[in-house]
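debug: dumping io for the single-chain case to check the tokenizer round-trip. Nothing else runs in this session.
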Amino acid sequence: MSVSTLALREEIHSVLSRDLNLQVETVESDLIASGVIDSVALVELIPELEARYGVEILLDEVDLEVFRSVTTIAMFISQLRPQASPAAWEDSDPS
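debug: decoded output
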């Protein structure tokens, strides 16, 4: 995993915990099996990720497994934005 993906992973963990008030124990925790990510959480999370990272997430084209853990979410966002760095993402923070 690249350094930028590691930084992104930590930022996404913070977004889930701080901004969406979701209890995420570790970046490897199974968010779906634990009930942290459900349909309501996805409705809140997807627009947050899109706004923060300037990506478009089309649920009909994305496997739900992408949202299995903080790590899988970070890897997915990294694939959508391979040219950007976490420092650039901070500049686009909508909050």
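debug: round-trip ok. Confidence is low (pLDDT under 50) at residues 84-89.
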